[in-house]
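note to self — DONT lose this again. spent like an hour looking for the file last time. sequence + predicted structure for the chain T wanted, 181 res
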Amino acid sequence: MQVGRYEILEMIGSGAHGRVARAHDPLIGRLVAIKLFPKELAHGEARQRFIQEARVVGQLSHPSIITLHDMGIDEASHTPYLVMEYLEGQPLDRILDKRSIPFQKACAWAGQVASALGVAHRKGVIHGDVKPANMLITEDGRVKPPPLPEHRLTGAPNRSWANRRTRARICFLWASCCMKW
């Protein structure tokens, strides 16, 4: 199967907002992850919003944010898609199903997520679905939230005290959910 110029190798996940595939980029010769969205986003206002949001998210740069390489709407299938860096790892919820996380590691991951969300918030992007199932733990032990699970643009960068308070709550909740008391 082909989406844009990318050759789909296998489906590796699915959720409420689309499916994720491991794919090959023949121009650069690398593996990528492609998130395929519902066809409803390919037309009208939804199309414009998809493109606008992808452009904003594509400008986010942080070691704990999965890098967005490309986006498009496949002409043949009318499927909107995002092309992201491909990382080996597993979602945090699967790790938590097997074992608890040491407190120091949970706090380190919470800090990485809060820092990434801070970068996004300063660009006016709110993630909208921070939970263990949406946090990828890479093979080298870093945590990376995906760029577009369910987010919204605030229209303006957010540097308020409430934003800092929200990040502090996320850190506390993240550490709490990673530990099995």
